[in-house]
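Sample 3 of the quickstart, ligand GFB:
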Amino acid sequence: IVSSLVLAAAEEDTSAQYCDKTTKSCGNNDEVSYGKKHIFYDVNPPEGFNLRRDVYMRFAIMLAEAQKQGKDNWELVLPPWYNLYHWRSGRRQPTPWNKYFDIKSLKSYSPVVEMHEIFSKTKKKELEIDVLYILENYEDPFENGVFNEKWHVKGECEYDGLYWGYNNVTAKEVLCVQFQGKASQLWELIALHPHATKLMFSHGEIPLHDTYGTKSYWDCRKSMKFNKNLIHIAKDYIAEYLKCKTERCATYFSVHWRRQDFARSRGNQVPSIAGTAKQIRKALKKLPDINKVFIATDASMSEINKLENALNDYGYETHFFLPSPSIIEEYGDGGIAIIDQIISSHAAYFIGTHESTFTYRIQEEREILGFDSSTTFNRLCPDTGHCEKSTKWLIVN
Ligand code: GFB
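Result:
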């Protein structure tokens, strides 16, 4: 009975080349979908690595929750890392997620696939997206003073994005859509094209989390384990220079010292170099057994040297992770950022940078590792003026 249903479905849709017996779904133009339908997304180009990790979670949770409700023929395609604004060294090719994350672990939470898995299943080595929705914000999110969830298809338009650096990806239909609301609302847009098997959302940062900070959020976050090689590099460094071989180290203090654009344009939120050293000293006075400080930073070499000198003058042993050329070549800026995050997350005490998503990801990692929250939600304050406390985003198990 199933086969005849499948055959009937295939006959109805003349463009279909095959159908899947279990899901009764048909591929419409090539063999890519192997009975699965695929959601692709990209993110506004200037957004950094750690906001992108959060955008991933919104989609991964959307798919995982749908799967629980029986929508089990959808997979999320992991958007390769390409041309990130802050990544100046190393890799220039679209980079798969397995360079940075443990894909098996991601898959244990949500139905995700790598782009290269999709390509390995296409004979033509080209990929045509059925419908590409370019999401846009509403001009006034609070129309009449209220924030309502809504969307509106404006009509056909042009995509000027890069398809993650691939020149063999195209879209059959491109639609501009105003959108505001949670990621799960995207299913309403998907339902507009019931026969499409490959849908893409551009500006994936626009949909919001369905349930920020809930158990689903943390289950997804916990599944974002790092690539094992990066963990090894970080742990070897911790053992050698910071003298710790356990998960929660008592031997060192860590700081995420965000500079670059933060130092240039957020002068009223971040401290000077001397101010940073003073704040580290103040915190360390309460931890008399620790004299090793690890600094994760995007600062220039000259800033690093100045901070190191200031901390050495106070009598602290200061450490920065300086990658070898082979690590830069193999993992690029993204891998080095993760190594810095892993080292920071195992420290006895952590101080981060206000409103940096890089800091937020370290704080989450520390929540997962089980540190007392008082050792985690601390921030560097500006040299003068008001210093708002860090918000505590506590784990929900
Ligand atoms: O991840 P990210 O977007 O967090 O930071 P924010 C941007 C990039 O800077 C990271 C590098 O991907 C890293 O390449 N970086 C920052 C670091 N801190 C460190 C560090 O401690 N170690 C290493 N190795 N690299 C956002 C920006 O930055 O802030 C947005 O992405 C915007 O474009 C916004 O500027 C205000 O949240 O800190």
